[in-house]
From TrEMBL:
Protein name, UniProt field: Adenosylmethionine-8-amino-7-oxononanoate aminotransferase
E.C. designation(s): 2.6.1.62
Gene3D superfamilies for the chain: Aspartate Aminotransferase, domain 1, Type I PLP-dependent aspartate aminotransferase-like (Major domain)
Family assignment from sequence similarity: Belongs to the class-III pyridoxal-phosphate-dependent aminotransferase family. BioA subfamily.
Gene assigned in the entry: bioA
InterPro entries the record matches: Aminotrans_3 (IPR005814), Aminotrans_3_PPA_site (IPR049704), BioA (IPR005815), PyrdxlP-dep_Trfase (IPR015424), PyrdxlP-dep_Trfase_major (IPR015421), PyrdxlP-dep_Trfase_small (IPR015422)
Main localization (coarse): cytoplasm
Reaction(s) catalysed by this chain's protein: (8S)-8-amino-7-oxononanoate + S-adenosyl-L-methionine = S-adenosyl-4-methylsulfanyl-2-oxobutanoate + (7R,8S)-7,8-diammoniononanoate
Swiss-Prot/TrEMBL GO biological process terms: biotin biosynthetic process
Phylogenetic lineage: Bacteria, Bacillati, Cyanobacteriota, Cyanophyceae, Leptolyngbyales
Native source organism of the sequence: Phormidesmis priestleyi
Annotated compartments: Cytoplasm
Keywords: Aminotransferase, Biotin biosynthesis, Cytoplasm, Pyridoxal phosphate, S-adenosyl-L-methionine, Transferase
Description of how the protein assembles with itself and partners: Homodimer.
Length: 427
């Protein structure tokens, strides 16, 4: 047995991968190195990463500026507890996040994953109302077809049908689910689209702490692009009914959808915002929950006197230093023009897929392209077909999709879209 085969065999025997089963795991491919937009496999093959390692590596792999930032920081300290201590990378990153997010957001709570950032946001909303002597406001209003993470509170606001609710029935908190928005991003707005959301707020606002949803783009729930007016109207209704608004910008943030943050399409600011994924450019796991001065001021006067949360690796100096450099890198070039070019190419090259028998829809927004199929994807069969074409994509459900690194070149993106067409044509 050669080295690569032994590595894969040991992996299959002992390593439990996400969304897989140990007795019959899905195929895995061993990566030896990664640079730019390419993954180099142990067997010598090279793959163009068309999904930026689950939407994180917006500047590709092993970017010299991010590597240098990490090397500089690791010489000083890779980690120090955040309880009672602080450090320059965290303070400067918080300052940068406040600078680039909507103005009312003035306070940053760091965590180490998007799911935890959502948990923090939900706990923050519940404790806020407790601080204001309204403890009965502890439920959440969210949207069907949404996704917010795999931890328990986050799962409770994921889609109740296609999410994990049936597996954990009786354990997940019961929340309120509005109908998924149906008016697409580029269609004329119709007020009826917000009717379900408004009706639930009207009926249950005395129990609802916050509404939480992904603005404009529902990502892992189906890569659906909906009208920005929905976000604006939802914001107005939350204010009208005295309910906080939490926006999950973990997947949409930092330019992916054509704006720095998706809420900019609606011209609104949330009470609480979650960011993650691309925050550190895929270098290390890092996330943050931002909120307003109005909300934060209630915690000192509340029953606990503090916010009851504190991740062990909160504000990790190494992650913060790389994230700060990643945001500076993003600001150093005309990223809107780059995203616009990717969007135009995706629209032009994926359009032909609409003629395929297996294809139900084709959608593009910013640096996001999706082919929706009539039937679910057979991952065990489809994943190797992309690898054989020199492309790394990770289909799910009925979707073949791409969210490439921003640094991808036109000829590299063309290889990705060609592979998407060829694989869809075989289905």
């Amino acid at each position: 047995m050669d080295t690569v085969d032994r590595l894969i065999a040991l992996d299959r025997q002992h390593v439990w991968h996400p969304y897989s089963a140990m007795p019959n795991p899905l195929p895995v491919f061993a990566v030896r190195a990664a640079k730019g937009v390419r993954l180099e496999l142990e067997d010598g093959r090279s793959l163009i990463d068309g999904i930026s390692s689950w939407w994180t590596c917006i500047h590709g792999y092993s970017h010299p500026r991010l590597n240098q930032a990490a090397q500089r920081q690791i010489e000083k300290m890779s980690h120090v507890m955040f309880g009672g201590l602080t450090h320059r990378p965290a303070v400067e990153l918080a300052q940068k996040l406040i600078e680039i997010t909507p103005e009312p957001l003035q306070h940053v709570f760091f965590s180490d994953s998007g799911s935890v950032a959502v948990e923090v946001a939900m706990k923050m909303a519940v404790q806020y109302w407790h601080n204001r002597a309204l403890p009965h406001k502890h439920k959440f209003l969210t949207l069907r077809s949404g996704y917010h993470g795999d931890t328990f509170a986050a799962m409770s606001v994921c889609d109740p049908v296609n999410g994990m609710h049936p597996l954990f029935n009786g354990l997940l908190a019961k929340q309120y689910f509005a109908d998924a928005p149906q008016i697409r991003f580029d269609q004329p707005w119709q007020e009826r689209d917000i009717a379900s959301f408004e009706a639930l707020l009207k009926a249950h606002h005395q129990q609802i702490a916050a509404a939480i949803f992904e603005p404009v783009v529902q990502n892992a729930g189906g890569v659906r692009f909906y009208h920005p007016e929905y976000v604006r109207r939802a914001s107005e209704l939350c204010k009208q009914y005295n309910v906080l608004l939490i926006l999950d910008e973990i997947a949409t943030g930092f330019g992916r959808c054509g704006k720095l943050f998706a809420c900019e399409y609606a011209g609104i600011s949330p009470d609480i915002m979650c960011v993650g994924k691309a925050l550190s450019g895929g270098f290390m796991s890092l996330a943050a929950t931002l909120t307003t001065t109005h909300i934060s001021k209630t915690f000192a006067s509340g029953e606990a006197g503090v916010f009851m949360h504190g991740p062990t690796f909160m504000g990790n100096p190494l992650a913060c230093a790389v994230a700060l450099e990643n945001l500076r890198l993003l600001e150093s070039y005309d990223w809107p023009a780059k995203i616009a070019a990717i969007e135009a190419q995706l629209k032009a090259e994926l359009a032909i897929c609409r003629s395929l028998k297996a294809v139900k829809d084709v959608r593009v927004l910013g640096a996001i392209g999706a082919i929706e199929l009539h039937q679910p994807v057979d991952m065990a069969r489809v994943q190797p077909q992309f690898v054989d074409r020199g492309v790394w994509l990770r289909p799910f459900g009925r979707l073949l999709y791409t969210m490439p690194p921003y640094i991808i070149e036109p000829h590299e993106l063309r290889q990705v879209t060609a592979a998407m067409y060829e694989v869809a044509a075989l289905l």
